[in-house]
Amino acid sequence: MLGAGMPALAGDLPALRASILLGEPRPASPVFESDELEALQLEPSRGLSAASAAVAAEARGSDPLDLPLAKGIGSRIRVSETAGYDSNVFRLSGAAAATAAGLAQMGDWYSTTRLGLGLEKSYAGQQLALDYDLSLARYGAFDFLNHNASTAVGRWRWTAGPNWKGELSTEYREALDDFAYYRSSQRSLGVTRQNTGSAFYRVVPGWEVGVQAAQGNRRYPDGTRPSNEIDFAGVDTVLRYVPDSGAVVAITRRKARGQYPNLPTDAGALAEKRFEQEEIFAEASLPLRSGTRGLVRMGTISRSYGRYPQNDFSGRNGLLGLEWQLTPRLQLNGTLRYDVEPAQDFVSSYVATKRLAGGVVWDYSPKLRIEGRAEWRDAEYRGDPGFGARVAARRQDQGLLTSVAATWQVTAHTRWVSSLTRENRDSTEAGLSFNYWTLAGSLQWLF
Question: Which residues contact 204 (CB under 8 A, 6 or more apart)?
Fold first, then answer.
């Protein structure tokens, strides 16, 4: 997805995720699935808020687990130390799979030290935002997973007169591949680079038209996954309505393309080297009453390939959500989603995913916040990978993730976060089922 200049409803989408960035070919296991069930994060946010001035004035950040940005915009230093245990680091199906992989155990202790530096300056309607984050991850038994990862983001949010605004940004991100999809006990560190730009023009009060563009790539400097390296680019055309009521309604047409530079191109190779994708979707964020908001998204997606047109697919995506402020201290939220996204392997070309999620955020006191989440997910892998035979579903995964986290604001610049997460995933394909639990705690400072 393109990540430039779409505030409120879509926010700053920092990477071409989903259908563009992660649509990677890999043998024997799915290349891309719908967004992974993510646990509540314990680290300080690596990104800068699009409405940083407003967030800086709040007692807490806009994200429940985001440290406050102090009382003004300027320089800041973030430091955190996290320790935890993961019962199934490589998301294996059981002890027998661990033995077959040459591992003496499935779980391990880990620690992560993070240092973040941020700078924001505003002048005459322009804002420059720089952010750097260094993460040092260390494991106990699986010390071959030890790694350092850096993230650097630079953004210039610009305005020109009363009607023009936009953003230019560049990003560099290093991250360990997720073992829920990367079925290997080998460390794989990916590097993603992306440049984005956007420009929006206010036609009349409340109405805006704009263009967003992004270009980037993902590489594996350690040489672990050359066939998953990708180049991508895309353009969004956006019509947006933002009235004074706080509602946001947008219609977006997205065209994207990508290529995998290291895939074989000989006549016997089944992998697709290039693709083109088009999406049209409408989304709305509607305030119902103070603190309560409804969310709606509906759209279509289509993808075409150059070598094997039988891999082409199209479908519909949709989301219904509600954020309900039950009391001043208690918020409930829920979403129902249906997504169609690429998933290339030897038996599928796309995945249709249904999700049902619910959560609660309870501000027990000014210093203590408790959050809970549960998400059910059903993914059906469909389509024709190039063998000329189509079936309704070749593989089906069902998963349930539950998590709870508590945040204690020790002082104005120090907090402690504890998190407990469990996920169970069952698959009709042997070896792809797994379950795990994680327990972690994090001490965080902001200066």
Answer: none
